[in-house]
Amino acid sequence: MNTRTVSRFAVATLVAAVMAACATVPDIDASQFPQAPAQFKEQAAYKDQGKWTVVNPSTTPARTDWWKAFDDPVLDELIERANRNNASIQASAARLAQARALARITDADRYPQLGVGAGVGRVGGVFEGTNGPARSFGTVGANLGYELDLFGKLSRGSEAARLDARAQASLLVSTQLLVQADVAQAYLALRALDDERTIVRETIAAYRGTLDLTERRYRAGDVAELDVARARTEVAATEADLLAIERRRTEVEHILAVLVGEVASNFDVSSGAWKTALPRIPAGVPSTVLARRPDVAAAQDRMLAAQQRAGVARAAWFPDVSLTANAGYASSELSDVFKWSARAWGIGALLSLPVFDGGRRDAGVKNADAILDENAAKYREQVLVAFRDVEDQLSALRLLSEQAEAQDRAVSSAARATALSDARYRNGFVSQLDLLDSQRSELRNRRQALQVRSAQYQATVGLVRALGGGWEVNT
């Protein structure tokens, strides 16, 4: 290129650089998002627990072994199996690999593109200014192309793809946390059913003892046949309850099998005593607990990616500028292709800008803005859900603790009433109906106490999930 051409190209480049200032990304109105409360509503009920506050979501959600706090080796093993084999985790990991690959593909457009090629053809008629017989024409060379990112279209597209990959990494952590929490809740439900089954079996044994006593007294003529029928009814009804518990336990065990990625037919969790520890919320919970919540981090990154793509859409109004270069050999005689005299090269600059596109670029900007608005709304919703989830589980734990105390008193009173009724029935001071009522009341209260205890475990796991993997910062 001569001096005048170079000068014109420099001027054009300067003008384009000035125009690039117009190709900006749209702002995100932070006022539309929920403001972090000074404290959670439930803080007043946890006066000895320190302050609960929230901060902005973390870009690197923490991975914690939160389930270790339950101190249950069986639970530990089940979660480790789920981490290795769960299909949802594997699918999420594959989506992360796809997102990272797409980010690399998008980023590759920012770098020079180099290619090599060779060709041969048969040319006849007028060729190189002369009319002659058909001859072969060969070329060998390399082509270099580079698109100048004057308006940030390529860099913003690359940044959007990077944010998508980071969001998918957060979603992988979120999926892992969800699966781990589901495993923990299913396992704890299984242990609760084991304990409930034990209670019902003990009650059946007590009912059968009452039935034996009633049958002996019936044969002795002390009671009517109606009393025997009532005792048999209680035994049969409670045996039916036991079978229902067995059915529910089998279903929960099958749910666990799917969560750990195994065939239900080959999966078994042996019955055992419920010795799982119930973690307590520590005092002085740090303000960073909600920052680790991966679904909030993913929603934030998706919103930021949409913001970058809105900038890409605006850059479509500006020209594309590319630099090209090629060098190689070309000859009408194949035998001369690689001779120095057959060398050829060229450089150039290409500028393209659609003048009329039927409104395509304007529609593209509006579409990108609408996608940004959608993702901003989803992010706002995710933050609100995070606040709600924590409040739900904190209030559940507080109320369940109070309920457990009241239920324990009810169990003690019911057990004492059953013991007194049994002694008085054996001595003929009360009717069989009084004894059966006491036994039914004790069974009902013992099962309710167990259900409250189970709900405490479920709410604790729910709080772990709501906080993004526990309340400890360094676990």
Structure description:
The chain has 475 residues and is of the alpha+beta class. It has a domain at 3-112 and 150-186 and 245-318 and 358-466: Up-down Bundle (Outer membrane efflux proteins (OEP)). The protein is 59% helix and 12% strand. It contains eight helices and four strands; from the N terminus they run H-H-H-E-E-H-H-H-E-E-H-H. The chain has helices at 3-20, 73-85, 87-108, 153-219, 225-259, 294-315, 360-426, 432-466, and strands spanning 113-127, 130-148, 320-331, 343-352. It has a four-stranded antiparallel sheet with strand order 1-2-3-4, with no helix packed on it. A hairpin with a 2-residue loop joins strand 1 and strand 2 (130-148). Helix 2 crosses helix 4 (153-219), helix 4 runs antiparallel to helix 8 (432-466) and helix 7 (360-426) packs antiparallel against helix 8. The radius of gyration is 37 Å and the shape is elongated.
Number of helices: 8
The first-level CATH class name of the domain at 3-112 and 150-186 and 245-318 and 358-466: Mainly Alpha
Helix/strand-derived category reads alpha+beta
- CATH-defined superfamily of the domain at 3-112 and 150-186 and 245-318 and 358-466: Outer membrane efflux proteins (OEP)
Shape: elongated
Based on the coordinates given, report the CATH architecture of the domain at 3-112 and 150-186 and 245-318 and 358-466.
Up-down Bundle
Tell me the strand percentage band: 5-15%
Question: What radius of gyration results from the CA coordinates?
Answer: 37 Å
| Helix/strand order | HHHEEHHHEEHH
Q: Tell me about the biggest sheet?
A: 4 strands, antiparallel
Strand order of the largest sheet: 1-2-3-4
Separation of the first and last Cα atoms? 64 Å
Got a strand count? 4
The percent of residues in helical segments reads 55-70%
Mean pLDDT: 82
